Sequence to fold (82 residues):
Amino acid sequence: MQEIASPADAIDFLNEWPEDGRDRIYEAALTACFDAYNGRIPASAARKTFFRFGEQVAILQDATSAMQWLAACMSGSGKAQV
Fold:
């Protein structure tokens, strides 16, 4: 699991994406993130494009379940409470 908290984080993540998985939505997300990083568009616009990419490749993690998993790990059980 990796947290993306800024356009710079998203750029780093996207630059590590396998080349055979780079399509038009990938390119749109990368361009939007660079544009947001350079102040040409709002970060919220880049976020929307990055989320579209994330949905397409099924990489988004539900924040609630991730937090439950983290809390369980910190308590020592290693299992999330459902």
